[in-house]
């Protein structure tokens, strides 16, 4: 049986397995599939922060991994680093560190970020190769493909794929019960 998702809805609902900022039950849930070496994903970091500022508690932001390994050779390692940091409750700190210089991701820089964040080096090194983390990343990739993800960044708003421009105003206008606000305030 061949699986096809013709509606381009999010196949895997948001849950506690995800890395999220905000309440999972928020009225607006923004899921972003990312690649840590993608320059467009790095640009989207600021846009998402603006959305978070603008929407406050009404927004839950979720990150899922989608490393484009054919284009970005360190993307999988960076995703693993984020997961290893998550094991020490530092996912978001590592997430933002990895996006500071996405074109300069290397093993040396990844360990530099870990030290800078005060992570336990031995534990981080062990977790960097942990199969549990790889399974989490692989599940993100698999469900991303099943949801129609083929590039990064890819956004879903309340489970529905967003195809518009990814700037603050366009994303705000696409969000339920919020669209007119963006036109009035930007």
UniProtKB/TrEMBL annotation:
InterPro entries: Thioredoxin-like_fold, Thioredoxin-like_sf, Thioredoxin_domain. The keyword Isomerase applies. It comes from the Bacteria. The keyword Cell cycle does not apply. Keywords: Isomerase. Residues 1-162 form the Thioredoxin domain. It holds the Pfam family Thioredoxin_4. One of its GO terms (molecular function) is isomerase activity. Belongs to the thioredoxin family. DsbA subfamily. This is Protein-disulfide isomerase. It comes from Chamaesiphon minutus (strain ATCC 27169 / PCC 6605).
